[in-house]
Amino acid sequence: MQSDKFRYMTVIAVVVANMVGTGVFTSLGFQLLDIQSGFVLLMLWAVGGLAALCGAMTYAELGAIFPRSGGEYNFLTRIYHPAAGFVSGWVSATVGFAGPVALAAMTFAAYAGTLAADGISDFAERSLAAALLIIVTIVHATNRRNSGGMQMILTIIKIGIILLFSVAAILMVDKPQPVTFLPVEGDGTLMTSGVFAVSLIYVNYAYNGWNAATYLSGELESPQKTLPWILLSGTLLVTALYVALNFVFLYTAPMDAMAGQVEVGFVAAEAAFGEGLGKFTGMTLALLLISTVSAMTLAGPRVIQVIGEDFKALGRLGKVNQHGVPSTAIYLQSFIAMLFIFSSTFESILVFTGFTLALNNFATVLGVFVLRWKQPELPRPYKTFLYPITPLFFLALTGWTLWFVLISRPVEGLFGLGIIGSGLLFYFLALRENAD
User: How far apart are CA 156 and CA 13, in angstroms?
Assistant: First the structure.
């Protein structure tokens, strides 16, 4: 029945809400520690958007061929081997969604904490993040009507507030910053450096979520027809929002004031509107992150669910409630996110999560070449636009970024590789249980 499926616009809302969240409201502060060129900073977001679009066009082909929920778990199982799919699902279950959920909730709490005159303590901030996560989890563990309806409303509000904030900040700022957005001498060298590559990890993290619709394919109306358009339209919309939002941040607030800060949106709001209205705007931006926590709590557990369906040892994870919602998987993902909230620093979660997810995406996009070679006769309702240029661009840019992260941030990179190794171990344990 049609009512048992998520609608086209609801899934676009999930894609947009998954992407527009923690990354775009925090990444600029870390990028400004090494990059002070307005042109290069905006190019980071444009290049990241182009890479996400290339990835989305490739995923659209795979999603149209294999229209089952589960994202990379589903794709890599079919393309390579069940072990590859399990490891991918393990990555998604342990850090792929739980990490970003924790980051979004922590960013919400950090922005909300700016309302207090003297700020709030670290424990209070983490507790506020946990409270948000608990409320969202309870709503999504009920039924699709509550889940999808809440997501649609939150996403519409999010886009409207971002557009309103951007226009108002440009019109109301007293002294625009003396930053040029045209290329200057040295920008070319900077854009080919390791600094640019590592900064792309923050950008790529911000764009994570362009593939969110593939986690809901099995619950989508006519997935083979609608999935490609959902992926492409959602990614294009977010790319435009990201470039515009970072332009506004750089236009309104001094770079020195934002460098190293998590709450760059709050800094820009105070610079544009003054302290009083800036605090109110900062809280408004914090509310936008509720949508991000919600979208990832909606999409991510579907990966855990299909793993539970395929492996007897993990069968309880595949259970659904009377409304067909994988409530057990939802509670598990939120529990893991809660552990991140109370045990890790913001930047460490961001870097190792971004690195691990980029590896996952790299293997999946590479899979389109493998699949065309191994099964050229397979029906393809949608074929990747400008193949093989688009997937090759994605692979080259992502591979270059991963290499520089391993060199410059080896602890986070090795932690990500450790997550993959632990996934292989659990796969063989689950396989043995299946055989028994």
Answer: 8
Measured distance CA(168)–CA(349) in Å, rounded: 33
Instruction: Find the angle CA(13)-CA(214)-CA(27) to the nearest 5 degrees.
Output: 60
Asked: is 2-435 a CATH 1.20.1740.10 domain? The reply is yes
Give the Cα separation of 20 and 43 in Å (integer): 18
What are the residues facing 220 on neighbouring strands?
6
Mention every residue, 6+ apart, whose C-beta is less than 8 A from residue 403: 197
Nearest CA among 318, 342, 338, 314 for reference residue 328? 318
Each residue's pLDDT tens digit, 355-375: 888 888 899 999 999 999 998
Q: Which of 8-12, 61-65, 143-147 has the highest mean pLDDT?
A: 61-65
Q: Where are the domains of the chain?
A: 2-435
Report the distance separating Cα 309 and Cα 329, nearest Å.
11
State CA 411 to chain mean position distance: 22
Put residue 176 in one of left, alpha, beta given phi > 0 → left and psi -120 to 50 → alpha: beta
Q: What percent of the chain has pLDDT over 70?
A: 84
| CB-CB contact of 289 with 25 (8 Å) | yes
Does residue 269 have a pLDDT over 90?
no
Q: Quick check: 388 and 96 in contact, CB under 8 A? A: no
